[in-house]
Structure formats: C-alpha cells, structure tokens
Predict the structure.
Amino acid sequence: MTYKIQDSDIELLRKTGVSEDDIKHCIKVAEKALEIAKRTGAKLDMELIGRGALFHDLGKSVTHEIEHGRIGAEIGKKIGLKKEITDIMEKHIRGGLTEDEARELGLPVKDYILKTLEERIVIYADRLVDIIMDGIVDIKGYESQAEKRFVEILKEYSRYGKNEITLNRYLAYHREIQGLIKK
C-alpha cells in the first residue's frame, strides 16, 4: 500500500497549535519514515507510519518537555486519531521506555517499549531527521550519511543517545532496520 502525506493532516497540526518549525520537522520525519519503510521491502502499514510520524510531536503544541509524547497522545485521542497512531506519539520518547525509565523521568509508570516495526521505523526516522536538521552531516548526500554514520554520531553526540540504555535501544533499531533494507 502506498501512502501520501495529507494536507488535511498538516492543517490539523496547525489548528492544534504546533509551530511551523515543528511541523517542518514532522513532515521530514514522515517523509524519511516512509522512504525507509519502502526500502525495507517488509509488509507494513504505510498509513500508520506516515501519520504516526507526522503526528509524533503533536504534544509540542503544549510543551517541548519530555511529557510532550503523553500530552500529544491525549490530544490525538480527542481529535480522533487511531490508537495505533497515539501509541506511537506516546511511546516515541527516547525510543520507548521501560516502566523503570518512565518512573525515573516522572512519566506515568507503564511500558512504553516499541512493539511493532512501524513504531521502530518512525522513531528511527525521527532520530535521523534530528541528525540531518542539526547539521551533523553534510547537506550533499546527507540522508545516506546520517544512516551510514548513525552509530558513530550517536556515540559521539550524547544528545542523540541520551544515556547508555537509550543509546543501545537506538543502535538496535538501526541494526534491525538496516538489516531489512535491500542493498
């Protein structure tokens, strides 16, 4: 199934108060997630990937703090987004958290671990887009550079890996998804 980002969804981000910079980020994450998903050749729900990526930072209409995932999921439920999409929104913080990590961060204690490949592709794309938009890789060939240098970049820049648990989680997603991509 193919999926195209809908103008109506972008307008919905605007109506809920997401800034233009955050919308630009969300669109880039959605484009990158869809591109990666296609390259894997796996049977995936492309609409879930596209919309999950597009709405993942909806909570930034309220705050840019760590609870933006939870807040975004609550807003998403109110505006009628499917549970699978709001799950991505809620669980995307640090690539999915254990109950212990949630407790340490002051979030509601529950399992935020990413269970589906669609969820992991969205979160992987989010991290790649952060690297690209922060200018860590050169503009020419930036997409392949971000993927090729992913391990090196996450180990060098702590803001992407956050801590050892989060770093290892992102590195595992990288290995899994790159392993699926047809070279």
User: Anything to note?
Assistant: The chain has one domain: 7-180. The chain has a mean pLDDT of 94. Residues 7-180 form a domain with the Hypothetical protein af1432 fold (CATH 1.10.3210).
